[in-house]
User: What shape does this take?
Amino acid sequence: MPHNYERVPDLGEGLRLHLNENTGGCSPRVLEALRAVTAQQVALYPAYDALVRQTADCLGVDAGSIQLTNGLDEGILAVAIASLRDRATDGHAPGSHPSPLEGIIVEPAFDMYAAYIDIAGARVVAVPPARDFEFPLAEVLGAITAATRILFLTNPNNPTGRVIPKAAIEAILRAAGTQAIVFLDEAYYEFAGETLVDEIDRHPNLVIGRTFAKAYGLAGLRAGCLIAQPQTLASICRVVPPYSLNLFAVAGLRAALGDPEYLRAYVAQVNESKRLLYDACAQLRLRCWPSAANFVLVEVGERAGPLVDALAGRRIFVRDRSGQPGCAGCVRITTGMVEHTRACIEAMKEFLCAGLS
Ligand SMILES: *Cc1c(COP(=O)(O)O)cnc(C)c1O
Assistant: This one.
């Protein structure tokens, strides 16, 4: 069965708390930069050098250690293809039937990993969730075989918000050795503050993914990046088209990176929003997991579907994650601007407490 990703339907106007977007919008400086784009600039292929240098400076790495991508999704696709497709029949005698290479994901996992492992012609090896979404280190290490070429880790994880202990990531990097890439997806880094960027010099098999869609609020512009040693990046870059980011993404990202204060203020909103939602869950006797990201996974139980529908009826969109492994009855709620979180909590209370006195 193919591993297809779920294309989220266009829901129209409303309070979007279902895709972990920045609910406050991007920095006003981004809009200024977009408005300043000229007809002449639009007519030209975009130039990337200045943006690459600026991004590398922000990330604290050399310009040669990053590859900008059209959203992190494109980066994930490029890493999957580079690590799985090129060498898809390595090590097989001519005429023998090649057995597929393998990519490992840790459930519950971001949809795109399995979809792209599949696209690259490899086999998806899924490590099941552990109790309380603890990171299943022994099981991940046990899943590595001679056919493994890539492991996907997400820190903090989506949809749980849980953090992977650094020692666990390092153990996996050692076990993967020269044979497999460890893709560490740090899409929610700005909220969590934990990264292995400082470690790339030590690990030729480490590729880190970042996105400017979430904390920076540039989801509509599409901008992400990969960070790795230049030699590791070389084979991945071959997969990324030469003009992958359009002119507006370039202009918008430059402005966004130049406004760190806006980012800091948003992260503060997110932290306060998470606190409010934890409190509300405690009051409503709903289990939730402490999150290092900009969303919280809430266990609603049998009323998960009805709650999602009732909120949608009020134009508040949250994501039913019941279908994901280990997530039965769970709803993922983006925690962005405090006023938006308050509106969602209010609506949750009204629905869940209706009929109770
Ligand atoms: C949102 C998300 C991405 C994709 O980011 P884009 O830049 O919008 O493509 C990648 N990984 C994880 C874990 C995400 O949650």
Remarks:
- The pocket of pyridoxal-5'-phosphate is lined by residues 20, 71-73, 110, 154, 158, 185, 187, 211, 213-214, 219, 224 (CB under 6 Å).
